[in-house]
Specification:
single chain, 644 residues, alpha+beta, Immunoglobulin-like, 24% helix, binds calcium ion
């Protein structure tokens, strides 16, 4: 665990190094003073039955400036950038003392950090409340304050204890973000080390997205998630923090690819949840795209019903966006792996043309995909097709790895394509919204396009390359702190095979051309005809018989197959078409072995010396390329020739 956190720190250092240096340079230019190396020890103490306000005691060591500037994120900001300065006061009753207990003065001001170079999605400034402390030459300073109680937070959100559907209540937990409750140095580089000691009533526990150095001490490192200098990964830096009574809440944790995946929910909700499914999908995404450079991923659900007026605003803490790479943080029932539909066996595989409450256009855990696509791998400038379309594609692929691709093609991609052809495709294209309010052209057409790209990659690489290889390349860029753009995307895609994707990217992702997916979502379609007839024919021995085959590759393009062209003879024996001989020879062997491709109309035989009796000619492909006939995976067609 230590190892992976170190790896995480290494990874983020690379990403933020430049920004940190740049910010530090600015600070030095504006405030020419030496950088401090402050050590911060926080204690978060919750007493009694959980009703009271938590109390924070912070000891700052190695202070060496006349003024100590400490900040926390405030006020609350929603996804549209609206400020709610009166909604929640996270920090109350602040007092500052020196090592001898003498009071020091603190004065408050508002600070805002903004940068036009920030990633498109995080357009809002970061708002801070800054407390300036006159240190009077003290090196060690203690700051104490209260944090809003959970009842105060829920009440501010518009939720009440009466709103709980199960027997949990606001006193049974505390939930929020460390950014809002940990006063910390204004200058990130001033932080040398930080720890957070958690003191809780008996039977309580906590969870953060930081590692522990002991059972009750969280190693915050240099508090890297909590500063705007790492702005490319601003959401990645959210630091959800949950404290809960273990008699009322269940925490399930699994280490996946070095990431501690934590899910906390009330006991009542836990009965309907299936964390194993979530783990499986989480692992899949790490495997096929890349392992997220985070220490932990945390989800939290409580069972509160009804509309909570400011729930989304609270979720958007601390920067004004409801989702984070480090987890989805929900304060009410539902959420991406919510109470309903969360079971692996209950994943609703909808039919796209059947809108309704039972037919959901997305899967309930879909939000997890965001951590990879759009939060970690970012497109700049923003393109809706990547966020919506590739997200939707991978959401479906997580289901496919559990249920099988055929199931997902049949139940999701084919209906989606049919809906597209019937209602959306142009010219001119007509956009529509799904029952989840998602535009077809931003979510579903680009999802189908991703499927098409995957098929083209397989087709041009004997299935050695897939769209996962593209995503891995893009993930590597993200690890280097590089946002994707059209040129990088195109170059990555074109590097995989000899196929030039430039025009299909233009046509289907940026343009409004009609997707040519006919035949890419169906089963392979072999066709065999005798004298241009697909039914039975009757000929005399003198007549010549022409046997012609064709194949539409269908959804398995590039997949290896045994190709069969066979004849059952009147005497009951089998012949097969030998490609090199160009004729039927006795026995039953594959005519060809290799990847599926679409084969245009091809004449194989044209002879007039067939024996009297019934000859049945078969053309088929089976998807297990092993030289034997596999009837469980074969697609075939036949025609019979009755020779008189
Ligand atoms: Ca076979």
């Amino acid at each position: 665990m230590k190892v992976s956190y170190d790896k995480l720190k290494e990874g983020t250092k690379k990403v933020i190094g430049f920004s940190v240096a740049f910010l530090a340079l600015n600070i030095i230019l504006i405030f020419p003073k030496p950088a401090n190396c402050m050590d911060l020890s926080y204690e978060f103490r919750l007493s009694g039955d959980g009703t009271s306000r938590p109390h924070v005691t912070l000891t700052v060591q190695n202070v060496n400036s006349a003024t100590l500037e400490m900040v926390f994120n405030w006020p609350v900001i929603d996804g549209l950038g609206n400020l709610y300065p009166d909604l929640i006061n996270f920090i109350e009753d602040v007092s500052v003392t020196d090592a001898d207990g003498r009071a020091l003065s603190i004065s408050w001001s508002d600070r805002t950090v903004d940068d036009t170079n920030w990633y498109w999605g995080f357009v809002h400034p970061i708002y801070y409340k800054c407390g300036s402390i006159e240190t009077l030459g003290n090196n060690n300073i203690t700051i104490q304050y209260d944090v809003s109680s959970n009842a105060e937070i829920l009440s501010a959100m518009g939720a009440t204890d009466e709103g709980f559907i199960d027997d949990t209540r606001s006193k049974d937990f505390w939930h929020g973000f460390l950014e809002n409750i940990l006063l910390r140095p204004w200058v990130h580089s001033d932080v040398s080390s930080a720890t957070l000691r958690i003191a809780l009533p008996g039977g309580w526990n906590y969870a953060t997205i930081y590692p522990n150095s002991s059972n009750d001490v969280v190693a915050l490192g240099t508090m890297d998630y909590m500063y705007g200098d790492n702005i490319r990964w601003k959401n990645y830096q959210r630091s959800p923090f949950i404290v809960y009574d273990t008699a009322k809440f269940v925490a399930q944790t699994k280490l996946i690819k070095g990431i501690k995946v934590i899910d906390i929910c009330s006991i009542e909700l836990d009965k309907d949840r299936n964390q194993e499914a979530f783990y499986q999908y989480f692992e899949y995404m790490n495997n096929v795209i890349g392992t997220l450079p985070i220490y932990a991923y945390l989800t939290f659900n409580v069972f509160i019903g009804g509309d909570i007026e400011f729930q989304k605003v609270f979720q958007a803490l601390p920067y004004g966006y409801e989702h984070g790479v480090t987890g989805e943080f929900y304060s009410a029932a539902g959420g991406d792996i919510g109470a309903w539909g969360s079971s692996l066996t209950k994943v609703p595989l909808w039919a796209f043309d059947g809108w309704g409450p039972e037919e959901q256009p997305h899967l309930f855990y879909a939000g997890m995909i965001r951590a990879w696509i759009f939060l970690f791998i970012q497109f700049d400038p923003f393109v809706p097709w990547f966020k919506g379309g590739f997200w939707t594609y991978y959401e479906n692929m997580t289901a496919a790895q559990r249920y099988g691709m055929d199931h997902v093609v049949d139940r999701r991609f084919r209906p989606m394509y049919k809906y597209y052809i019937d209602n959306i495709a142009g010219p001119p294209e007509v956009d529509e919204k799904s029952s989840w309010g998602k535009n077809f052209l931003e979510y579903y057409k680009p999802c189908l396009t991703a499927y098409y790209f995957d098929q083209l990659l397989k087709e041009n690489s004997s299935s050695n390359k897939t769209i996962d290889d593209l995503m891995k390349l893009l993930f590597q860029k993200a690890e280097q702190g590089i946002a994707i753009n059209r040129a990088i995307f195109t170059e990555a895609l074109n590097s995989l095979t000899n196929y030039d994707f430039t025009s299909v990217i233009e046509d289907y992702l940026y343009g409004s051309s009609k997707l040519p997916l006919d035949g890419y979502l169906d089963n392979p379609y072999p066709n065999i005809v005798a004298n241009n007839s697909s039914g039975s024919i009757t000929v005399s021995t003198a007549d010549s018989v022409s046997i012609t085959v064709s194949l539409t590759r269908g959804r398995y393009g590039g997949q290896n197959a045994d190709w069969w062209v066979a004849e059952s003879t009147p005497s009951g024996t089998f012949n097969y078409y030998n490609l090199s001989a160009g004729s039927m020879v006795s026995g039953l062997l594959p005519t060809h072995q290799g990847p599926l491709f679409s084969l245009g109309t091809t004449q194989l035989l044209n002879s007039s010396d067939l024996a009297v009796g019934t000859h049945t000619f078969y053309f088929g492909v089976d998807l297990k390329m092993n030289g034997s006939l596999d009837m469980d995976s074969i697609y075939y067609d036949w025609v019979s020739v009755n020779v008189q």
